Give the backbone structure.
Amino acid sequence: MSNLTFPVLQFLADGQFHSGEALAQQFKVTRATIWNAIKHAKSLGIPIFSVPGRGYKLPQAIEFLDKNAVLNAIGEQREWFNLIILDEIASTNTYLMQQKNVAHATCVAAHIQTKGKGRRGRTWVSQLGASLTFSLVWRFQCGAAALSGLSLAVGVALMRTLISFGVNQAKLKWPNDVLVEGKKLAGILIELHGDLDGPSMAVIGIGVNLNLPKEVIEAIDQPTIDLNTASNNTINQNFLLGTLLKHLTEVLSRFEQFGFVGFRDEWVNYHAYHQQPVRMLLPNGTEVLGLVNNVADDGILLVETSLGLQRFSAGEISLRAVNTGDTA
Ligand code: BTN
């Protein structure tokens, strides 16, 4: 690990060539030290061009997370948050789950996650400047048992944010994937600490694809899309994170009082597969075919099957659309 890696990357963020000599002068170190910092960046999967005689260059200009810009975008509620921006971490969820006594409304966003986690044991792929990855700690008086609809409520906050950015074609897939054109744009991973009857702490991890290189999108094992493709406007990631935190505050505060029930109609409105034929994949490898009927007050999916109305709770269960090749 080189302490200079991220300062050097910030210098290269303009997408222009900078010579090793100029960088060495800027940071008052030798060219070999700069080379080491670049080597570490490359080991993190960051593509950097090194051209003899010209220096180092990122493939394109990138925007870094900036604490003040995020706080400004949150607006009045910025005081609530303890916002931490990390350069490199295995996973923002894992990091917060391992900390002791984390304050309510602590948000950790990372420029790079080296072991990003998805639901059901999957890996979450992200890239510097091309993905938004963060986790938010929210403490509840109630216990984990009362939080069954939480991940769906968080999906509502994501949808409100995306709609405010004009991404009106975004949809939710139960329990909480965000899709555009049937491809995954964003995901939510919630991990819980605490007793079943309370109090409890949720680590709400969110990943949004911003501007992933084509080859990265193609290497992901499910249909994937990014905001750059889904939106006509260029979306600033600091503004996106601030707006998301604002909507999350509203949704989580209301969830604390009333649970998921207050969001149910809105959630159903966003659901890509409401009243659609689906396959439910169960943890034991079997699947159940049915027609999505509704979602219950606690976030459980109600599916009309050959055995009658069946209830599916999120956990390790996954939904697939029938006849669309959906593998998201
Ligand atoms: C999924 O759809 O499978 C959930 C993806 C969640 C990814 C985010 S990125 C920030 C946070 N840290 C992680 O390791 N995962 C979540």
About this structure: The radius of gyration is 21 Å. The longest strand covers residues 183-194. Residues 91-93, 113, 116-119, 122, 124, 133-135, 177, 187-189, 205-207 surround biotin (CB under 6 Å). The chain has three domains: 5-57, 67-269, 273-321.
